[in-house]
Amino acid sequence: MTLPSIGPAAEQWDAAVAAVRALGGAAEIQLICHVSPDGDALGSMLGFGLGLRRLGHTRVRATFPGEFRVPTPYADLPGMDLLVPEHEAFDEPDLVLVFDVASESRLGGLAARVAAAPVSVVLDHHASNTGFGTIRLVDPRAAATSVLAEQLIARLGVPLDAEIAECFYVALATDTGSFKFDATTVAVHELAARLIATGLRPGDISRRIFDTRPFGAMKLAGEVLGRAVLEPAAAGGLGLVWTYATLADLDRHEQPPYVLDTLIDPVRSVAEADVTVLVKQVAEGEWAVSLRSKGAVDVSRLAISQGGGGHRLAAGFTGFGEPSDVVDTVRRLLDDYRN
Ligand code: 5GP
Ligand code: MN
């Protein structure tokens, strides 16, 4: 039986390999991931950067737009020494590779650098990817961007080692919700097995990345969860649950914003609701909106309609006004984006 070919086209893989092979060891290679990076953004980017180093490339830098703050759980990822703040990125790199970025808006001030680069390779797995970049390794069925990054370093002939594998494992575990989500296929477990076989200790990694937070973060979570609202009639009776967190909440508990990244998980476990909304303040009147669905709503399309993006069951956008204004907008759109 011939399996249908999936993933990026062979020409795109060949072009990406050729783009790297065309460069000498002293070429300037800039790696970029999305604003407010998560485990997949950082892990796929740094793991790939380490792979370039193994190939003899000495001038590799990794960065992301906006405030140069790495969430504590990722601070010890291998390859962290490749990371520089946005203003230290190469001005005119010979090659740019972009990781886990669905749209140019997620590149902030670095979007122009990508557009001006002679070659830009985009590795991504968002259904909402807008199609930027000259070489496109985009596969919405990939569980994480690290799936694509690992394939590219394999095609470049770099063997997996424990450092590269740790980066890719963190990325894979992050985007599959620790191997729980629908995208957790046989291939995902096979990749995880190859990564673990380099000597990783999954228990240690999971504890560090997912199960270690400051006391203040737990107290803050208690408050944010305590104010959650359940609307059983929303989404045609399938239910909506939402809550919000302000900058004042973070200040009061002396916590950085990253501690809110995983707070959507206990909210979305509510049995009485299909759709979950977590509204996180980023500035006065400006909110990072996280959306989740258990299947009834295509939250990616809903988010795109608000200038954001994501996956069918997990997406986000920037909202304005008060949290209730943001939730009013989402509630109004739920029926338009029913699956
Ligand atoms: P989260 O809610 O965990 O921040 O994000 C869920 C998914 O939606 C991720 O794949 C993330 O990349 C995407 N996403 C979240 N916020 C935005 C946004 O403002 N714009 C875009 N294009 N994607 C977003
Ligand atoms: Mn991702």
Pick out its properties.
339 residues, alpha/beta, inorganic pyrophosphatase (n-terminal core), Diaminopimelate Epimerase, Chain A, domain 1, 2 domains, six-stranded mixed sheet, five-stranded parallel sheet, binds manganese (II) ion
Average predicted confidence as pLDDT: 97
Q: CATH topology of the largest domain, anyone?
A: inorganic pyrophosphatase (n-terminal core)
The parts where pLDDT drops under 50 for at least 5 residues are none
CATH architecture of the largest domain: Alpha-Beta Complex
Instruction: Tell me the fraction of residues in β-strands, as a range.
Output: 15-25%
Shape: globular
Bound molecules: guanosine-5'-monophosphate, manganese (II) ion
CATH superfamily of the largest domain: inorganic pyrophosphatase (n-terminal core)
Summing up helix and strand content along with how strands pair, one would put the structural category as: alpha/beta
Offer a concise description of the structure.
This protein is an alpha/beta fold. It has twelve helices and eleven strands. It has helices at about 10-20, 40-55, 110-115, 145-155, 160-175, 185-195, 200-210, 215-225, 245-250, 265-270, 300-305, 325-335; strands at about 30-35, 60-65, 95-100, 120-125, 135-140, 230, 240-245, 275-285, 285-295, 310, 315-320.
